[in-house]
């Protein structure tokens, strides 16, 4: 189905990042329920644990407060009313899609994702996720 067909279907759209392979189905369902109840775009998020600095040119500046930051994770839920207003499919990078939706004036609701819903970007992340979820390496 094309994006145009999906947007015109009158159905809610759930976008899932394949790099969040252990996102619990119950969390995805909770995000969908929240989007349906509020009409807002709903996205999973995780706390930022790294130190984040402002960089300007070649200069490293101030440290940002981690409490003011989130890491976007899966899923991203577009209520049918929002999906029908979009003239193109959202970016496949969920953080970019959220930024684009917010810039277009769509209310964004962040739901804290469970630790096993984290995004993997390295072999170490896979090992951590395996340990968190009781995968084969921990049995």
TrEMBL record:
Entry-linked InterPro entries: IspD/TarI, Nucleotide-diphossugar_trans
Coiled coil: none
Domain of life per record: Bacteria
Keyword vocabulary terms for this entry: Nucleotidyltransferase, Transferase
KW Transferase (keyword) present: yes
Entry's Gene Ontology molecular function annotations: nucleotidyltransferase activity
Any Pfam family: IspD
Keyword Nucleotidyltransferase found: yes
Name of the featured protein: 2-C-methyl-D-erythritol 4-phosphate cytidylyltransferase
């Amino acid at each position: 189905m094309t994006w145009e067909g999906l947007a015109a279907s009158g159905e809610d759209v759930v976008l899932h990042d394949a790099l969040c392979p252990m996102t619990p189905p119950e969390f995805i369902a909770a995000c969908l329920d929240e989007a349906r109840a509020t009409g807002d775009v709903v996205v999973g998020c995780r706390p930022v644990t790294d130190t984040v600095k402002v960089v300007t040119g070649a200069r490293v500046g101030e440290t940002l407060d981690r409490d003011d930051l989130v890491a976007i994770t899966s899923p991203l839920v577009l209520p049918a009313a929002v999906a029908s207003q979009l003239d193109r499919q959202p970016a496949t990078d969920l953080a970019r899609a959220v930024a684009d939706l917010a810039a277009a004036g769509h209310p964004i609701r962040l739901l804290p994702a469970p630790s096993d819903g984290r995004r993997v970007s390295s072999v170490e992340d896979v090992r951590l996720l395996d340990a968190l979820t009781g995968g084969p390496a921990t049995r």
